[in-house]
Design brief:
Blueprint lengths: L3 H17 L4 E5 L2 E7 L3 E9 L4 E4 L3 E4 H11 L11 E2 L3 H5 L5 E3 L3 H26 L2 H10 L3 H7 L5 H11 L5 H16 L2 H4 L2 H23 L3
Antiparallel strand pairs: 1-2, 2-3, 3-4, 3-5, 4-7, 5-6
Protein name: DUF4304 domain-containing protein
Organism: Pedobacter fastidiosus
Length: 227
């Protein structure tokens, strides 16, 4: 079995200069590589996960909107919003369609070469256009509105705070329907909170009660502050 150190060495040799040409860099973290590009107000990134046994896989591309997370932290004081987690995960059908081609169990150097060549191709053809498109708040709003189920929304916008964050995007774009979105988000949290499933689970009830209160606080913040 090829060790993790050797696989990391090959990855660096094959991808480092390629990624640098687009402004990205490889940042090793526990159990994975962060492939990151920091800009003024956003962070574009994805991960290359490496597991015992030689399995490696490239993740979906993600974007962190610093202003969105900053407002969430100011209101909630929760450390998760300072941890550079994603705001949106870009799970387009095109990217999902090639996901199996950017993961493998590495037993020889030729496999990592092939995997990295696949990644380079899809990075240019799919990842970079997705990063460019969804780094614009107006396109994030359009995406949100196109997702007609909770499951679809959650695939792009992880976490129960998605109905709060979308209000920040609305304010960023000075949408005339901002107040309508506020009412929709409040209604959404109230519906979830009052559901039988939530009422019978104290952990869920506590979590969604906090989400509802945070939503109201963020709305008040957005009504009196420019974003």
């Amino acid at each position: 079995m090829i060790g993790k150190v050797q696989i990391r060495k090959w990855i660096n040799e094959l991808l480092n200069e390629f990624l640098k040409s687009f402004g990205f860099k490889i940042s090793p973290i526990v159990g994975a590589y962060g492939i990151v590009k920091r800009e003024d107000n956003i962070i574009k990134y994805h991960f290359l996960s490496q597991h015992t046994g030689g399995e490696i896989a490239f993740s979906y591309p993600s974007i962190r909107f610093n202003e969105v997370e900053k407002i969430m932290f100011e209101i909630t004081k929760l450390g998760v919003y300072e941890a550079e987690n994603e705001t949106i995960s870009i799970n387009t059908e095109e990217i999902k369609g090639v996901f199996d081609l950017v993961q493998d169990t590495i037993t020889q150097e030729e496999q990592i070469v092939s995997l990295c060549e696949n990644f380079k191709r899809y990075f240019v053809d799919l990842y970079l256009p997705a990063f460019e498109k969804y780094s614009k708040p107006e396109n994030v709003l359009q995406l949100w509105d196109s997702l007609d189920t909770l499951e679809k929304k959650t695939s792009y916008f992880p976490g129960p705070d998605k109905y709060i964050k979308i209000l920040i995007f609305s304010k960023m774009c000075n949408e005339p329907q901002f107040e309508d979105r506020c009412r929709e988000s409040i209604s959404r949290y109230e519906t979830i909170l009052n559901s039988e499933e939530t009422q019978n689970n104290e952990m869920l009830k506590t979590g969604y009660t906090e989400d509802l209160e945070n939503c109201k606080k963020v709305i008040e913040y957005l009504r009196v502050n420019e974003v």
